[in-house]
Amino acid sequence: MQLLKVKFFIFLSACLLLGSISYAQENEVSFEIKLSKEKLGINERLRVEFTMNKDGDNFSPPAFDGFKVVMGPSQSISSSWINGKRSFSKSYSYILVPTSRGKFTIKQATIEISGQTYKTLPKTVEVTAAVDKPSDEKTVDDVADESLHLVAEVSKGNPYLNEAVTVVYKLYVGQDIRVTNYRPLDNPKYNNFWSQDIPVSKPKPQNTTYKGKPYLSVVLKRVVLYPQKSGKLDIEPLSLEIYVDVPTNRRDFFGGRIYSQTTKTVSAGRRTLNVKALPEAGKPLNFGGAVGDFEFAVTTSKKQLNASESLQAKVEVTGKGNLKLFQLPEPELPSALEVYEPEYDENVRTVSSGMEGKVANHYTIVPSFRGKYPIPSISFSYFNPKTSKYVTLTSEEINIEVMEGPVGATSNNAVSSTSNKQLVVPTGKQFHFIKLSPNLNKIGANYFFGSNRFYFMLILPLLLIPIAVVSFKKREAIASDVAGNKIKRANKLAKKYLSTAKKELGNKEAFYVALEKGLHNYLKAKLKIETSEFSKEKITTILTDRKVDVDSMNGFIGLLTSCEMARYSPFSDVQMQNDYQKASEVISKLDKQL
Fold this sequence. Notes:
By secondary structure, the chain is α+β, with helices and mostly antiparallel strands. The protein has helices at residues 2-27, 140-147, 452-480, 482-503, 508-527, 536-545, 550-565, 573-593; strands at 31-35, 39-41, 46-52, 57-60, 67-82, 85-98, 102-106, 110-113, 116-119, 123-128, 148-154, 165-174, 178-186, 193-198, 206-210, 213-227, 231-235, 239-251, 257-267, 271-275, 292-300, 304-305, 311-321, 337-339, 343-351, 354-367, 371-375, 379-384, 389-394, 398-402. The longest helix has 29 residues, at 452-480.
């Protein structure tokens, strides 16, 4: 028995030791250099590849003394799951040609992985005299590397805060190869930007030149960005995996060129914008963050009406700029006018140059007394980035005349709340005298007491008692159902913010735009934060401060990510239905916690 215990202890210790060794091997960082050859002729080419088993940042290649870089760096990423284990590989490759004979050292390259700096070992390469038959003919991968370039073209490198910047991602393809398909690997997150993808129709190749050589160019993605903070802001790179057919030197039976298929990873590279803050000099006091070129108007549906009738007052801004990212000015109306909460109306479309259209608030106004009521002029200010100046627009004063209705207790009821005051002009008599001859008539023989109506009204309360008891018990049962009431309120809240998205189920682009807007509007109403403050990091910080559980927070951020991914990835109707259901659940959970 004792011997069995000892054997079991030895077996358990061996398993733990092997497990720890395996875990250490899996988590060990590898960063090394690979050479296609260590000895080559001066008329041959050298392929240098730096590979790592974990993703890193700030890669710095060596100087390549004695060589000329003819291609690179080409970036390649490979990730897979085999038997529950993740395999990752990332590489930067260069094609070099020697500039002279001799022995040269490929010095150390560096990269940062998980906060640590790693370096490769130096490698020595010997360059000899030219060889008769160079063994370094271009491979399929070499041709693909030289013929594929993904470029991010930015419309403006130093925009103002909240000024539109257009980023166009173009793929340049050499005329010898053919692209069969592609898929995004790493999508930019556009932190510190309000972003809107512009749908790209079927790509149409165009003949162009890139670095002096003929290429075919295809626009793969367009996005409009509005920077939400000043300073240097990075635009993360877009990475694609591209499937290409590369011609070889072989021919088929009929003499046609044989193509070989390969996959390459291309990246647009990181771009940096220098965002300028809006000038403080000349900034109006009522400036609300509008940037662009706008027109401003205040109109009413009618200027004459009777008391208890209603009219519509509209405060509208039209033009081109950050229409969704500022607040409209509010009118100051006389206290004698009853004003309801405004209805927000938006008709904005985002084109390649930015947002354009109109936004408006519709106010329903109901006067209670007759008289004349002025709607004072309102000012709206915006910053025009083309002229680098602030512009203030002022509406005209509008006078509303109430023709018929009761007269207010005092004339002050019709006085404007601003310094531009105007008294009510009463019409008709203001005082009515009591009649001295009331012309009263005698009650006839039809007395109320003892009539059928008398007995009906006497019995009516007795009939209402059981109805009231049943109604009271039903209300009490509903009120005691706490969980049911929470579910009803949550469902009602979700329907309120997701109603537009539900209508667009089946229409991918419209559905996800409406879903993202509904999620943003919910947070805006619940947390009282401005639209310009929205970013995933900001939302995560706010929800963490409000002590929202991690599952709800991750669910909300995951939905926003799905909305971004859906703009350039295929999504099925089932996925849309699942995302809608998930959005309802997330809003319900957040509402209980907030």
